[in-house]
Automatic annotation (TrEMBL):
InterPro entries: TMEM267. The keyword Phosphoprotein does not apply. The lineage of its organism: Eukaryota, Metazoa, Ecdysozoa, Arthropoda, Hexapoda. It comes from Ranatra chinensis. Keywords: Membrane, Transmembrane, Transmembrane helix. This is Transmembrane protein 267. It is found in: Membrane.
Length: 208
């Protein structure tokens, strides 16, 4: 259990350090964007790692089995959500991407929940547990990203409605709680929970 708590503490630590860096690094814009992306990625990666460490198969003596590619994928997705800034700007120009007059689509929590519903629906129809797991991974990736962005502009839940900006203590508590709440729901519903090897067909130890 200690390893799980350590990872949860790391999520809050990484988010707090990342936010502080954004207050310090104002220029050049690419450095600021890189710093923000890395923080998003690390927070998502650690969130999925914390969730995995909560599972019974990963507890007990010795170093637990961790599907590292799955953990890495969560980090990549958590960071890659900001690509929609460039898509909305229809340009690779960072200044244009950062100064949109509207929020890009993947920053809509409502839309991302709808996207998560697809793998859930397909896995329910085809009884495919790895798709359930992918749906939960996507949930953790985009939720951690939206919670971080939510301190600036709130959570965009419906097309014309967003919450007020999230207070800092609430956002940090929500980030720390996210993997544990998700794990509890996965366990309760037995969805994507018992897949020992993770949903990816490859295991890192087969590659390196
Ligand atoms: Zn963002």
């Amino acid at each position: 259990m200690w390893d799980c708590l350590l990872v949860s503490g790391s999520i809050v630590g990484v988010a707090a350090v990342g936010d502080r860096l954004l207050e310090i690094v104002k220029d050049p814009p690419w450095e600021r964007a890189l710093c923000d992306s890395c923080t998003h990625g690390l927070v998502a990666l650690l969130s999925w790692l914390a969730l995995i460490l909560r599972t019974g198969r990963c507890q007990g003596g010795g170093w637990p089995y961790v599907p590292w590619l799955e953990v890495l994928l969560c980090g990549i997705l958590g960071s890659a959500i900001d690509i929609d800034h460039f898509i909305a700007a229809r340009s690779f120009d960072l200044k244009l991407a950062l100064h949109l007059n509207h929020r890009p689509p993947l920053h809509s929590t409502g839309l991302c929940c709808l996207l998560a519903a697809f793998p859930f629906l397909l896995s329910w129809i085809f009884r495919c547990d790895w798709l359930f797991r992918f749906g939960w991974l996507w949930w953790v990736a985009f939720s951690s990203h939206h919670l971080r962005d939510g301190t600036r502009r709130g959570l965009w839940l419906l097309p014309n409605w967003s919450t007020p900006p999230l207070p800092r203590p609430l956002y940090l508590a929500a980030l720390a709680a996210l993997p544990h709440i998700t794990w509890s729901v996965m366990k309760l519903t037995q969805t994507g929970f018992n897949r020992q090897e993770g949903f990816l067909p490859l295991r890192l130890e087969y590659i390196i």
